[in-house]
Structures
1.
Amino acid sequence: MKSITLTRFLIEQEREADALPTELRMLIETVARACKAIGNAVSKGALGEVLGSLGSENVQGEVQKKLDVIANELLLEANEWGGHLAAMASEEMETLHRIPHRYPKGEYLLLFDPIDGSSNIDVGLTVGTIFSVLVAPAECSGRDVTEEDFLQPGSRQVAAGYALYGPQALLVLTIGAGVYEFTLDREIGSWRMTDGPMTMPQGAREFAINMSNRRQWSPAVTRYIDERVAGSEGPLGKDYNMRWTASMVADIHRILKRGGIFLYPADAREPGKARLRLMYEANPMAFLVTQAGGAATDGTTAILDIAPSGLHQRVGVVIGDKAEVAAASAMAEVG
Ligand code: F6P
Ligand code: MN
């Protein structure tokens, strides 16, 4: 297949479409390079002695896998010295990571989930890296960046994407002008475009949710799912299929490619809280899916409009097919 490289795509975006500042282009290239290194580590598996846990916990109280920490380090090291960033934040770090004083500072803020779907690492299933890019507020030039500088709604993202380490290594990216997919060509070591601008198919009858949480759901979520499980014998009169990989990045990729809806709603386990994180999971995925013609809410409010209150804030996620997201949100509003 003849296709352009990520490098060429980004340069063309910068040159022709005027959609991409040079510094942001270089930042995306750096993140993409780090994702190659992470994919390489993931693919070694047991042979590279990268599987298993460390015994430590991250700020979320989750046991850190070796690969969570390796991937976090790879992203920090790759992005520290290029001069594009003001600071970084990650699922694996309690607070922000400032650019050391010995390096020049840029205007961007990078957030990432180094390995999403960590529970799949040790069984050899698909995991990925999710990232989001914001612009540091103008007033933070000349002073140290703070956590508050990161707390901007997802609508302010200037780029977002994910890498998927599955049968192929894939990179899916938006800079606010469509969604593009690149596949890693291992023979030449380059990301090459294999899809885009991507439009997610609408009308697919497929949902993704962890059904084992059913007894914890709100009445609205229970009704939404029950109607679909009832299929052709229920009020919708049509059958639905279900998929759950327990890697959000893999589930969302499937939805971008063939449609459907993903739900990880806030539930009764932690009142007012939820499983997924707003800043580096929900926001980048919401940006990508809406760019591809889908929708994303927390059950009622558009994810991209939520004003964050913390770096590791959790949020309910209902994302994918526009009509399905609207149907789920309408039930929530009725209560
Ligand atoms: O990052 C959180 C995450 O691993 C997501 O990738 C995934 O969708 C979810 O958690 C899986 O949750 P559960 O263990 O409840 O299936
Ligand atoms: Mn994750």
Note: DSSP finds seven helices and 17 strands in the chain.
2.
Amino acid sequence: MEKYYLTTAIDYVNGAPHIGHAYEKILTDIIAKHYSQRCDDVFFLTGTDEHGIKIQKTAAAQGKTPKELCDENSQKFKEAWKALDIDYTKFIRTTDDYHEKAVQHIFKKLYEQGDIYKHSYEGLYCSGCECFLNPKDLTEDGLCPDHLKKPEVVSEENYFFKLTKYKDAIIKHIKEHPDFILPEFRANEVLHQLEEIQDISVSRAKSNVQWGIDVLGDEDQSIYVWIDALSNYITAIGYNTENASDDFKKYWPVDVHVIGKDILKFHSIYWPAFLMALDLPLPKHIFAHGWITIDETKMSKSLGNVVSPTSVLENFNMEHPDAFRYYMASSAPCGRDGNYSDEDFKEKVNAHLANSMGNLLNRTLSMLVKYFDGEVKAEFKAENPLGKKALGTVQIVKNHFDNFEIAEAAQEIISLVDATNKYVQDNAPWTLAKEEKMVECGQVLTNVLDIMCIIASLIYPYCPNIAKDMARQLSFDLSTKLDDLTADNIKVGKLIEKEDIKPVFLRLDSELADKSAKK
Ligand code: MSP
């Protein structure tokens, strides 16, 4: 694998980031960190989507200019991602100058080659979706089914994109590439939507939408937000219609666009059509994740149940975001909806990260100090009965990641932790020590520590801070690539002093956790 390029959806900046936005960025960051353990060149793109009627209206309601609103909220997204240890390579804002210019040229090219034409149109526009809706998709009361708002009747002369010209090619591509849309069950929905597609409006009258990129040579029209937004995936790596940058040549086609299920149509129908019109290769995968509810209820401003990711970190006095990252990433099977609740969060991370994984390391290192003064002797190195399972887990985890089964991969890692705990129980090194079978006792402890190195490596994408703490206590090099892992990781010699043993994760409700957070 030479490079891995992955992207998130870019978020609308009409509000601050919530836990749903965070879910997607955490998933993508975990995928990025996993592939960085398999390849040296990972490019992770995220950003904010800043034009359109929704932003224009929100800014007006708050007595701000759209630019002021965008600057303020875009910054909040950046701060939230920092708090969550989201290590993106690049953050694009659709108000960035280079992006706006590139979008204008993309539009011009499509117009000049006849893929875009002018047409008078009347339709129902939902500003929540930023798109025209088909009357047959509305609720009985004539509302947008997603936003439960009445769409606006818009009668304008707009530019249209010849989506219908690409219909057959897109159907063919989806059918010939079963891993183009993941999880696979979503592909049928898309094929169904494709049956009914029509050409789409790709501009709005400036009289109605001022906050958008101007159509070159037609100052009465602004470019439709979805052309603007989708193009970020290529403009960010230096695409322009004249000549492609080195980065563009290196990274395109993208390996995966990570998006929510609600915007799959835009990514698997509109975007491939635009790319075909630009004569560019299509994305390798589009992975649509499910939605996060709060206490089993859809998040909404009117219900007042919108949860910000940073408030969770603050409420639980967390030193780092690992537990939250782990919980969010394992909250739903691939592509299905998940839920966040404070109680479940606490219970799950205490059980998995503190009781199972953290304690295992802590107990084992403590025994090594108690019985052997922290030293691993040469005779402790023996055939490791857990080795095969642990290396098998590495392969299974890789396969899950190749299918974007992030929660399933986490489950595998915890199964390895459980199997290692069982091995300790079954072999009772404390009894071996009592019986003065010291070599056997040392072998059991060393076998466990060897496997803990593999666990540290596998958990790293989810819990980077915990993994670093584990690796430090194991003197293990966390930059080891997954394919270079072996069952023999612990070096013979002094491993650790008593005072260097630290719990890697304190139970969320423990007094210790409380004290350490207050420090
Ligand atoms: N701006 C567009 C995307 C353009 S991509 C070229 C948009 N923005 S959004 O802010 O509404 O959503 C951004 C991402 O967050 C989407 O992938 C969306 O599915 C995701 N989520 C928004 N709310 C969510 C949940 N409650 N749960 C999980 N993800 C959700 O759409």
Note: Residues 515-519 have pLDDT under 50 and may be disordered.
3.
Amino acid sequence: MLAQGSGMTSVRTRTRMIERLRAQGICDEKVLAVMGQVPRHAFVDEALAHKAYDDLSLPIGFGQTISQPYIVARMSELVFAVPQHRNVLEIGTGCGYQTSILSKLFKTVHSIERVGGLVRNTRDRLSSLEIHNARLRHADGSRGLPDLAPFDAILITAAAPIVPENLMDQLAMGGRLVFPVGDVDQELRMIERVDDGFTETRLEKVKFVPLLPGIA
Ligand code: SAH
């Protein structure tokens, strides 16, 4: 049973999170509205629900984490600025929080996760939240999904050791690939497909779990 309306998971708590996101520079109203709708406490263990709306990353089992609200909002805002919203590819489903946000911004979400236990838990969670436009796949996401390309946007929620150039070809014209890169010192980057090729923008310093090879 979700602790709806009670203290730390109430509408007021969510409203405070949105105000904080605005203060942190998030300004896309649609992204802010969606972040206010999706119940973040439903994605973490009940014992951590009271911290769900704080600006923290939290453990989700299997040694993985749910990203802090700011970074989810930031990456969502960057990918939502593309010209079309037909499909988006997410690499690193985790608990499905970012997936759920994307499901309200794009017609279809394809999300790949390497840990089988997370795929199973997240499928159940998304279905209980009545999110039906997200397709989850248990696989190593580093090659993307060439069969379903092109994508209007691609987002990687684990840090790649090097720029994932193979995924650039899976972008639609005007599409954006947003990803963290690096090991200890990580940076958020964005690659955009433009008429005569690609542009790359270096964004802020970030901290993500690493992108790992193979499945578990
Ligand atoms: N998007 C999540 C963040 C999950 S953390 C959120 O909303 O909070 C990153 C996830 O990427 C982990 O679940 C990890 O298992 C997964 N991951 C790491 N390497 C991967 C790979 N090569 N392919 C697919 N998923 C991967």
Note: The helical segments are 11-23, 29-37, 69-80, 97-103, 116-128.
4.
Amino acid sequence: MENNNEAVNSNFIKTIIDNDLKDKKHNTIVTRFPPEPNGFLHIGHAKAICINFGIAREYGGTCHLRFDDTNPGKENIEYVESIKEDVRWLGFDWQENIFFASDYFEQMYDCAVQLIKQGKAFVCSLSPEEIREYRGTLTDPGRDSPYKNRSIEENLDLFERMKAGEFDEGKYTLRAKIDMASPNINMRDPAIYRIIKKEHHRTSDKWHIYPMYDYAHCLEDALEGITHSLCSLEFEDHRPLYDWFLDELNTEHHPQQIEFSRLNLTYTVLSKRKLIELVESKLVSGWDDPRMPTISGYRRRGFTPESIRVFCEKIGVSRANSMVDVNLLNFCLREELNKSAPRVMAVLRPLKIIITNYPEGKEEYLEADVNPEDPGMGKRMIPFSKEIYIERSDFIEDPPKKYFRLSPGKEVRLNHAWYITCEKVVRNEETSEIIELHCIYDPETKGGWSSDGRKVKGSLHWVSAKHAVDAEVRLYNNLFTTANPNEIDGDATYNDYINPDSIEIIKGCKLEPDLADAKINVRYQFLRLGYYWLDPKDSSKENLVFNRILSLRDKWS
Ligand code: ATP
Ligand code: MG
């Protein structure tokens, strides 16, 4: 695959794997990426994907894509499909190794029966509230359930009837018999199965009991012969339970769980629950809104899979929780696009200029590099004529000191064209709004360079009025106004920190004429403005819509 730029660094997980291979503990490495299909993937998942698929690729092993679909009600097939699309788009391939936890429900049930027979699990009649009360706290031990000593026969009978759908939700749970005094709350007789009377998107109404995450996950890993189960740090305290189930069941494979720190990004929320809220409250237009930190949001915005993989490589793999600056992700994309993006000129908020000494009706084509970083990309021809547009913000009538752009009497360069000097400001008499400027050009400065060595400090982008094509341009900024929207104090909700300027839609933008034939999938650099591409969803031949992927620089850098 095309990951030449992605230097492969070592990390503590690879050190463990290297040792396991040296000790002949395994012949091949098998990892897995196990999303729950209850939402779209976000950039945090991209980190987990790059680690799991990346390690498999590097060691010539395999990585399973496994849907952890043990929780009907929140999961659906739309999420399954979106996850597949996102993993593929990121550049990874699970080949034939696609799995669903729900395919193991029968085996999981049998294992639970085995635990009951071994005297290691019991059916508990405590209500969910009582279970919580009996559990104890971080400082106080819990208490045994009064049902812990049910006979094996009674447990088997009740568990079978739970499966058959005889009981209402909450009436019984199957629990492991471990230790209510354990300092690790996860080990205090955790639930293994609960009754849920909901349709499952794959098994329909076949099951009335569903396994808990901790029980299901280790079995899925063991059944698939995973060698290294790589997950984020919040599962560290669950590892003893992961090992307990596999030890008690004496499974053929006993994968090693290894935890790494989650990705946290500034100005970004990375939690499916919160992202669902944003979608459902319509604060964004959907999971693929270009402001969303979802893979589909980044894709629609115009990020490349390579930039995301490079980012994941750069942030590395460690066990230290940290907050990564979102500008690092932007930096990775800019590095790539600076090399690959064709340059064009586009004026977002046009102000008309009439070049009074340029002949009426004349037009000529000026040559420019498609990309000065890469001469191999060739040249392009840009039409010039008597009337052009520049950016409104590039003219100030009464400029402050050190203002190098256009103002009355001032000379500036039109990129790739000529020097011009502003001679007159024309206003609407009623509103006094500036409607156009009259300028003269110096024919001796073709290409934007003066033969007498005269220098100008300002260089402006422009488009020829009669050749320009119209477009709508959408500018995106951070969705949140606070660097850490995950930690908001007091009564505030994160909705209070939504950036009102996170999207700005500008109509009537004027673009270089070649952009009439802009292609979906080409990322352009609009000179002086940033990187843009056609919105894959809303743009059409008749109504061009460009997304700003990124400005040329971060505002605060
Ligand atoms: P969220 O907390 O956003 O709801 P999740 O952990 O519940 O996500 P899963 O579908 O269970 O979502 O995640 C699949 C895998 O992705 C897990 O192994 C998890 O460790 C990993 N993962 C999720 N979020 C991150 C993150 N921010 N950084 C690194 N890995 C993550
Ligand atoms: Mg989870």
Note: The longest strand covers residues 419-427.
